[in-house]
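Entry:
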Amino acid sequence: MKKSCHPLYLIAPLAGLLYSGIAAANDTGPVITDPHFKLAPGYLEPASLPVHLALLGAPPKPDSAAFARDEEARRAALALRGSAREKLAATDAELTFPAPAQAFSCALGTDINQKNTPHLYSMMQRVLTDAGGSTYAGKNAYNRTRPFVQHSEGTCRKDMEPLLKNDGSWPSGHSAAGWAWGLVLAEIQPARATELLARGLAFGQSRVICDAHWQSDVAAGRIMGAATVAVLHGNPAFMADLAAAKREVQEATRANLKPTESCAAERVALSLSMH
């Protein structure tokens, strides 16, 4: 009989926090202002998202050591302006598909697309909605000012700045989605787990490099991404799609369907990263 194996991130302490203590949203869920997190129906009902602030606490205060680290990370990121890493960060900012699928194809070792991996492609879209939505209790509660606004600087995506200015900085929705995708994809293709988890981390770090988020926003987003994945493992529709996605990736690997993106260029860009 085949044993059921659960990933390490589905741990009891995290699960115990998901629905305990401090409710951060009403029964209908948080108010989501970024349309990228509403492009596809999620697996979870809004009221079922792991949105409780007990997971995170509050963002750093301006006179805290944590905020000093945020500023240090911002200054370090400014040194990457004009680099290949900033260019990749600008690409990572795009949450409209197929861009996120392409972002993880090199790490997966096969192309993620609607033709060859339709279940995986659709699952990534739905996970985006759930992971991104999970960050809005914090965004709604604190409406933290983004670094590019506080310092009157531009980001790597000026076209997105009007939306970002009115969307709370903490936690980072991009980082939640990137880490959730990394975790799910590592479960789908364990042989590429290191590459996929590294790409998930880099996807979130792109937000600091873009000057769109503070470092602590990214860290908080990763927590919410992991929390979302933990909750998703109790959702039958997600589990069915996860199994189908595993079969698709196995078939694509056997057929030697390699990514169509320039993986060498991506590796060079990531080598310049802060992570």
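Residues 86-271 form a domain with the Vanadium-containing Chloroperoxidase; domain 1 fold (CATH 1.20.144.10).
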